[in-house]
Amino acid sequence: MDTAGIDVGAVLLQVTLCRLGKLLRREFPNTPAGHRAIAAWLTRKGTITRVCLEATGSYGLDLALVLSGCESIELMVANPRAVRQFAAALMQRNKTDLIDADVNQEFAARMPFQRWVRPSQAALELRTIARRIDSLQRICASEKNRRHAAAATRSTSRCVARSFERVIRMLETQVRELLQRALALIQSEPALQTRYDWATSAIGIGRSSAIRLLGELAYLPSDMDPRQCVAHAGLAPRHHRSGTSVEKKTRVSRQSNRYLRTALFMPAMTARRHDPHLRAFADHLIRAGKTPLQALVAVMRKLLVGLTACFRRHEPFRSEMLFRPPALA
Fold it and tell me: Can you tell me the distance from the alpha carbon of 141 to that of 264, in angstroms, rounded to the nearest whole number?
């Protein structure tokens, strides 16, 4: 078995290949032609090549799609934090593209291999739409805040006020068009439509929130369990304790998918107020000494666990399965 590591850049791809005990290094352009050339170089008849590259967003996605379609290539898309800590364990002091490719090759050779599951084309498109909606909504909220601040003083010019209104209307129009496109895409895929119906059956999850949540969850492998999804969202508790003198406050890790974590915030706020079971769960935590913010984060985690469970079990969302008050347990 050959092993290879790829460092992904916006322009160049640095590839390190270990074949028959020898390290071979080459550079390729980050273009469709370069992706095909890498696949051809890594392919050897009668041999499986295990390839590791870091998750770098859109710069490495097309390459991953090409490599995952080759029969003799097994691809792993590694967490950048795991690779960084692996490089530190190797006592690697320097950081260059060539060194990063070598580290990725060592990672593929030594670490447990987790094969990347190629998502469907609909899931890929839905994720790009959902993330664009999130970006535009953030910009729109910033513009509304600036408009509010400008309206507090008489010195603001009328042309500036009109500029705020035009930009906000344009952003809201773009968001509506993207929401319609996302709904059309969901309706064209029966599996996505079923998941959308189950998600919107939960109290607190509306149309926009369901699209943003599906955009992130549909991209993940179907065999991920709720615990792995919670860790992927950065909502897993992080403990720090050493001996008898060091014990830091437990916090969530926040070291993963911020889009999924952000998409859960407003649904959790609504569910905290209007869902009787999740409201009882949050009140139970507050009585146990947790702060309101900690209780809200716990509700976010419960929502994600419930969504993942209903997707795996092929049944609607049921909040009564997430928490049962002690008096009824």
Answer: 18
Say if residues 171 and 165 touch (Cβ distance below 8 Å).
no
Give one word for 169, left, alpha or beta, with left for phi > 0 and alpha for psi -120 to 50. alpha
Task: Give per-residue pLDDT as tens, 256-298.
Answer: 788 888 899 999 999 999 988 899 999 999 998 889 998 999 9
Dig out the tokens for 253 from the structure.
């890790």
Q: Extract the tokens encoding 244.
A: 């008898």
| Cβ neighbours of residue 216 closer than 8 Å, sequence gap 6 or more | 127, 130, 257, 259, 260, 263
Token digits of residue 324:
């049962």
Q: Is 78 in a helix, a strand, or coil?
A: strand
Rg of the chain over all Cα atoms, to the nearest angstrom: 24
Q: What's the gap between Cα 194 and its chain centre?
A: 21
**Among residues 208, 218, 312, which one has the least CA distance to residue 265?**
208
Structure confidence at residue 250 (pLDDT): 65
Asked if 279 and 273 count as a contact pair (C-beta separation under 8 A), the reply is yes
The overall pTM is greater than 0.90: no
What is the DSSP code (8-state) at residue 238?
E
Spatial distance between the Cα atoms of 218 and 119, rounded to a whole number of angstroms: 8
Angle, vertex CA 126, rays to CA 50 and CA 73, nearest 5: 10
State yes or no: pLDDT of 175 exceeds 90.
yes
| Cβ pair 131, 123 in contact under 8 A | no
Q: The dihedral of CA 291, 293, 295, 298: what is its sign?
A: negative
Residue 232: is its pLDDT beyond 90? no
Which pLDDT score, from 0 to 100, does residue 329 have?
Answer: 47
Number of helical (H) and strand (E) elements in the chain, helices listed first: 12, 9
Longest dimension (CA), the chain: 76
Give the count of beta carbons closer than 10 Å to the beta carbon of residue 45: 5
